[in-house]
Design goal:
This protein has a single domain (8-238), classed as Aldolase class I (TIM Barrel, Alpha-Beta Barrel), CATH 3.20.20.70. It has seven helices and nine strands. It has helices at 59-69, 88-100, 114-120, 141-160, 177-190, 212-222, 235-238; strands at 7-17, 27-33, 55-58, 76-80, 104-109, 126-130, 164-171, 198-203, 229-231. Strands 3-1-2-4-5-6-7-8-9 form a nine-stranded mixed beta sheet.
């Protein structure tokens, strides 16, 4: 995986309306980092998965692109992917630049590496911690527990450092209820409801889509532990935003 503090591989930079998570509807500058080694079967940005996708820029030129794209009344700058942790050194430098402009920084990551996450954390204001269920096929079953452990550690670090933190799980019709129940128990044995800003169940789109009944069954698993759970689809697709 490419790690270069002087260069950055970016798939795209654009301004649009946030369509996911608890901050949906906010005007956002998206910096989509190139490259992701995970294999989520419902991924909707497959064009950004290769490390060679997009373009390589010097950090100074990438900062110019960010400044050129930045629009008035932008609520936050979203570092997404791909997987931003693969290029965490470059993301740190770009996040410093963004924060110096007085803007909120937002990390959207699979949290597969808690060490890299902890290095990025001081430069992020908002963190989405996404837990990958086994039916995502993000990693093979032998490595899934290690992925979960890293995600748990990232969650605890974000909460401990008082970041605005929310949890997201993409769910399909095949998502195992017992697995979700065990995950929810582990999460709220470690953090309290007051520690997080949201718990989002995001239905998969176009791949093994869950029925309304299935979504309510999964909602009912989370609700006894966290009453602010929400089912939120990818709203940007419904309004045909980028």
């Amino acid at each position: 995986m490419m790690i270069n503090a002087c260069k950055v591989q970016i798939s795209e930079i654009f301004t649009s309306i946030e369509g996911e998570g608890f901050l949906f509807g906010t005007k956002t500058l998206f910096i989509r980092m190139a490259g992701c080694h995970l294999k989520c079967r419902w991924c909707d940005t497959m064009y950004a998965l290769p490390m060679s996708s997009g373009n390589e820029y010097s950090l100074e030129y990438a900062k110019k692109l960010i400044s050129d794209e930045l629009q008035p009344c932008t609520y936050k700058v979203n570092f997404t992917g791909g997987e931003p942790l693969l290029q965490y050194l470059a993301v740190i430098e770009l996040a410093k630049f963004v924060k110096n402009k007085g803007l909120r920084t937002y990390l959207e990551s699979a949290c597969y590496d808690s060490g890299r996450f902890s290095k990025l954390l001081p430069y992020m204001d908002i963190c989405k911690v996404e837990f990958k269920m086994t039916d995502s096929n993000a990693v093979d079953i032998r490595h899934h527990q290690n992925l979960l452990q890293n995600e748990f550690t990232c969650l605890m670090n974000a909460v401990r450092n008082r970041k605005v933190t929310y949890i997201k799980i993409v769910v399909t019709n095949s998502t195992d209820s017992d697995e979700v129940e065990a995950l929810v128990k582990n999460i709220f044995d470690g953090v309290s409801g007051e520690d997080i800003s949201g718990f989002i169940l995001q239905p998969s789109d176009g791949v093994d889509e869950p029925s309304s009944q299935r979504l309510m069954e999964l909602y009912d698993i989370v609700y006894p532990r966290y009453r602010e759970v929400r089912i939120i689809p990818q709203l940007h697709k419904l309004i045909r935003a980028r």
